[in-house]
Fold this sequence. Notes:
The chain is of the alpha/beta class. The protein has helices at residues 3-18, 68-85, 140-156, 168-171, 179-185; strands at 31-32, 52-59, 95-97, 103-105, 124-129, 159-167. It has a six-stranded mixed beta sheet with strand order 1-4-3-5-2-6. The protein starts with a helix and ends in an 8-residue tail after the last helix. Mean pLDDT is 89; it is low at 1-25.
Amino acid sequence: MSLRCALLAWALFTLLRHGAAQKASDCCGPIVPRREWRGLASNCDRKLSLPKSYVVVSHTAGSPCDTPDSCLKQVQNVQNYHKGTLGWCDVAYNFLIGEDGLVYEGRGWDTQGAHAGGGWNSKSIGISFMGNYMDRAPPQRALRAAQSLLACGVARGALRTNYEVKGHRDVQDTLSPGDRLYEIIQTWPHYRY
């Protein structure tokens, strides 16, 4: 068995084991729902009016994860930090992207995030890549997962067809989403400074 086939078989097995993949009809690609990563209950009550015109891309600036098991732990760590240490109502982001190539549901499509300041939370969907991307780029599978999520948002009516992608640093004084990831998102067709 080739390395590629072995990796694909491992990924499929892991997805089935965790029950992480939702039906394609429910969403446009595999999204690990909160119940699967054992997220704490959200106390957030601010709903978003959809569709949104903006997506803000950030990085967590923490440890990366490259397997479903390590990403489950990492998204729990992010939520515990946001809820337990910072006192927020939930994990800040609408979705998180793992280096395993999976999308993890944060606040989801319908609930306002806490991913950017200056009024951007109410008018955007926040997507954060788990890891620090100052000096290295996320793997292609993570970038493809993000692109699939954006297409899903348009298909579901959560994002306008002419939505704009912004780097976190475009809307707030921060180094996020890291230099390497920022260079990449600037090449995406919906990126606007």
